[in-house]
Each structure stands twice: as C-alpha cells, then as structure tokens.
Design brief:
The protein has 506 residues and is α+β, with helices and mostly antiparallel strands. It has 11 helices and 12 strands. Helix content is 62%, strand content 15%. The strands form 3 sheets. A 5-stranded antiparallel β-sheet has the order 2-1-5-4-3, sandwiched between helices.
C-alpha cells in the first residue's frame, strides 16, 4: 500500500513538468502566432497609413491646385471684366470723337471721356506741330511742372525723342530693357503704354497712359486698347483736317465762282449788247440793200424782156446772171433779216395745231421734182401716237425745206432719204436721214455757225449762203426745241431735232 503513492507521486511531478513544457511551448507558439498576426496587422496598418498619407498628400496637392485654379480664374475673370469695360469705354469714346469734325472739340471730348472711362492713373497726350515740336493737349495725373520737364527732356534727349518718333506701340509689358528704363525715367511710371497717333502724313502725336501702383500692371488688353484708341484719334483728327481743307477750298471756290459769275455776267451783258448791235446793223443794212437790189432786179428783168430794145445775146446772158445773183442776194438778205428778228424777239410765232404728217407730205410734194431728177427714194415713218403739234406751220415748213433740200443736194443718184418721227418723253423727235456724202467729224461743231459752209465737191459747184442751218436752229429754239447732227464722211448724215408736245406760246 505504501509503494503505489510513491510511484504516482514521481509520475505526477514528471508529468507536471511535461505538461508545463507543453503549455509553455503552446504559449510560445501562440505568442509567436499572435506576434506574426500582429506584425501582419501592423504591416497592413502601415500600408494603410502610407496610403492615407499618399491620399492626404494627393488631396493637399489637389487643394493647392484648386486654390491656384480659383485664383487664376478670379484673375482671368477680373481681366475679362477689365477688358470688357475697356471695350465699352473704347466704344463710347469712339462715338464721342467720331461725331465731330472740329479738332479742338475732339480734344475737349477726349479730355472728359478718358478720365472717367479708361481707368489709368496718369494720361498724357502730346501732339507735334509742323516743326515737330511737342505740345501737351491732354494731361491727367501730371502736374504742369512735370509736363514741362517731360517736354524739356524730349527736346534735350535726342535718343529719347527718336525712340518716341519710331511710331510703334511700346509698353512696360514687352519693351526691351533699355527702352523701358528710358520711358520709366521720362514718365516716372513703372507700368505704361506708349502708342503713336498716326495719319496719312505720318506721326502727329503720342498717347501715354500708365499706373504707378505695383499692383496695377498694364496688360496686353491695355496695350491693344490704347493702340486702337490712338488709331481712332488719328483718324478723327485726319477727318477733321480734311473737312477743314474741303471747307476752306469750298469757301475759296465759292468766292472764285462769285467773282467769275460777276465777270461772266458783265461779259454776257457785253455780248448781248454786241449781239443786239449786230442784229440792228444787219437789219438796217438789209433794209438798205433791199431797195437798190429791187431796182437792179427790176431793170435787169425789163432789159431781158426787150421792152427797151433788142439786146445782144452776150448782154442778155449777163443780164440773166445779174438777175440770178440778185435773187441769191435777196434770199441772203431775207435770211439775215429773219435770223435778226428771231434773235431780237421781233418775230411772233403764230402757233396753231397742225398734223405733222400733213406738213411732211406737203414738203414732199414741193421737192418731188428734184428727187425725181436724181431718182431718190423718199421714205417716211411717223409714230401715229404723236398728237397735233402747236407750231407756226410757215416756220416749221422752212425747217423741213432747208433740211430736206440739203439732203437732196448732197445725196447722189439712186440714193435714199428717210424722215422718221417718234415720241421721246415730252417731245416729238424727228430724224432726217440721207445716204449722201456725209460730213467729217471735225466740221460737225461748226455746222450751225453763220456763213459756214462745209468744204466739199458739192458746195464747190452749188453755191449757198451758209445761213440755212442757222435759221433752222433759231426757228426750232423759238419753238422750244433743239437740233443736232450725226455724220461720218462717206456714210450719210442724220439731222435730229425735237419739238415739244406741249409747246409754250412763243
């Protein structure tokens, strides 16, 4: 009974240690496992922390970018608003200076508008005279002393005046360093725009604007604005100058016209006096010639008939020539008297309604023998819409007789003569067309001159007075019509004349 407990006790101690070792080992393994799990967890947490840190950095960068973008957007918006305001100001100023043609008024309007519209701290407009000396016309933000100093420096500093006379827009934004420094010293401004005022004659002025404050730099929009405005000022001043020149030229022209009109009026009075004297002289001489011519013609006719005795054949031939030439002189005198009377208004046109076809046919019958001798075809084409005309039939017959006689005279054998009549607005237009020898162009302007006769083979054979066409022209003008001629040598001649459809009483 004593042996068994001993064995059990030994066994129990050993088992205890074994079990303890197992427990410790199990604990160690568990702790190791827990440590491994913990390390994995720490690793995952570290990775998560790294990810969080990366995300945070990324969010920080994005936040900075958002802030930067917001600032840029605000700046862009401000720039756009400024440019929009500048464009509105440019539009208003352009309307102000484009509605006047007075140079002084342009500067007065600019002086008011620029201050309130453009938004620059300082503005200076210099204009050059004919000697290229600068004068301040607009000054905002500059004292009188500062402007005088600027003008003095421009005169003394040749390189600076040459720089300004280059005629290009310069700004503190893009000007080379040397130019920027010179202009900064001249104006005392850190930010500026300098733009030339140009016309077709070249540079006439310079437009300065600028800001002293560092937080108010000029922009490309400011540069464009001032450049455009300078061009518009130059255009407005050029328009004003052109208007002034035109106005002065007009005044001078009106003065010259008035002087010339007075001279022409005096000359016209003298011409009228001379014309009247000529008409009176022609009338008097014609009357004086009529009596001896009547006697000459009468005695020649008596002698030709043999009532005072037999006349030798040679003498009779000469008496017939005297009689013939007396008839020509009588016709010449009658034509001269008629022209003189019409010019002086002493001939009263007896206006009555007449059918123009009837007048033409009566003239045709009168000239039929002459046309038959030369086998000339006579054609008429009269518009039936032409009403009866209020004319002096005797005088208008003389017009047709003169023109148709000339046509027969200058048309060769087997030729054609046409008389056309048609409506032409308020007139009846007549054309007498022949297929004769024609008239050279250099002789057409002289055709209606007194005593002028075209030098051709027909006129060398058939004599005339050179008064027929003059008489025709006077008669038509007395009726309120006119006459002209178109012709070329060798292609025939066309006389055109008009008679009013509603004639005024002469």
């Amino acid at each position: 009974m004593n042996t068994i407990p001993k064995i059990t006790g030994e066994f129990s101690i050993d088992s205890f240690w074994v079990m303890l070792g197992i427990v410790i080992l199990t604990i160690i393994v568990a702790l190791a496992f827990l440590a491994i799990l913990k390390m994995e967890q720490v690793k995952r947490l570290k990775t998560a922390v790294d990810k969080l840190r990366h995300s945070f950095n990324s969010l920080d960068e994005q936040a900075k970018l958002i802030v930067k973008t917001d600032l840029e957007l605000n700046k862009t918006q401000e720039e756009l608003e400024k440019r929009l305001n500048s464009l509105n100001a440019l539009d208003r100023i352009s309307r102000l200076i484009s509605t006047t043609l007075d140079a002084e008024e342009i500067f007065r309007r600019l002086s008011k508008a620029i201050v309130s519209e453009l938004g620059f701290e300082k503005i200076l407009v210099l204009m050059f005279d004919k000697e290229k000396e600068a004068h301040a016309r607009i000054e905002v933000g500059f004292s009188k002393e500062t402007v005088s100093e600027i003008l003095s420096r421009l005169v003394k500093d040749h390189s600076l005046s040459t720089l300004l006379l280059e005629g290009r827009t310069i700004s503190s934004l893009n000007a080379p360093k040397q130019k920027r420094e010179k202009i900064t010293q001249l104006l005392g401004l850190g930010h500026f725009v300098l733009s030339p005022i140009l016309t077709q004659d070249g540079l006439i002025g310079i437009f300065f604007v600028g800001n002293q404050a560092e937080n108010m730099p000029v922009t490309e929009g400011d540069e464009d604005l001032i450049s455009i405005l300078s061009n518009q000022i130059g255009q407005a001043l050029e328009n004003a100058n052109l208007f002034e020149q035109v106005y002065r030229s007009r005044q001078e022209l009106e003065s010259k016209i008035q002087d010339r009109t007075r001279e022409l009026a005096l000359a016209l009075e003298k011409v009228q006096e001379i014309s009247k004297a000529k008409s009176d002289f022609v009338s008097a001489v014609s009357h004086e010639l009529r009596t001896p011519l009547t006697s000459i013609k009468g005695y020649a006719s008596i002698l030709i008939t043999g009532k005072v005795g037999d006349i030798p054949t040679a003498v009779k031939e000469r008496l017939e020539k005297i009689n013939k030439h007396s008839d020509n002189l009588v016709k010449l005198i009658n034509d001269l008297l008629d022209i003189s009377r019409i010019e002086s208004g002493r001939v009263e046109m007896k206006l009555e309604e007449h059918n123009i076809v009837t007048l033409i046919e009566s003239i045709r019958d009168l000239l039929a023998p002459q046309m038959k001798d030369k086998n000339i075809q006579f054609e008429t084409r009269v518009d039936q819409k032409i009403p009866s005309l209020l004319v002096d039939s005797t005088q208008i017959e003389r017009v047709f007789i003169n023109l148709l006689s000339n046509a027969v005279k200058f048309t060769p054998q087997n030729g054609t003569i046409k008389v056309n009549a048609q409506m032409d607005k308020d007139n009846a237009l007549f054309q007498i067309i022949d297929t004769g020898i024609g008239i050279s162009e250099n002789e057409l302007p002289k055709l209606f001159s007194e005593f002028y006769r075209v030098d051709n083979e027909v006129n060398q054979v058939v004599k005339g007075t050179g008064l027929g066409l003059v008489l025709v022209k006077k008669i038509l003008e007395a009726h309120g019509g006119r006459i002209w001629v178109t012709s070329k040598a060798g292609t025939g001649t066309t006389f055109h004349f008009t008679l009013p459809l509603k004639s005024q009483k002469a």
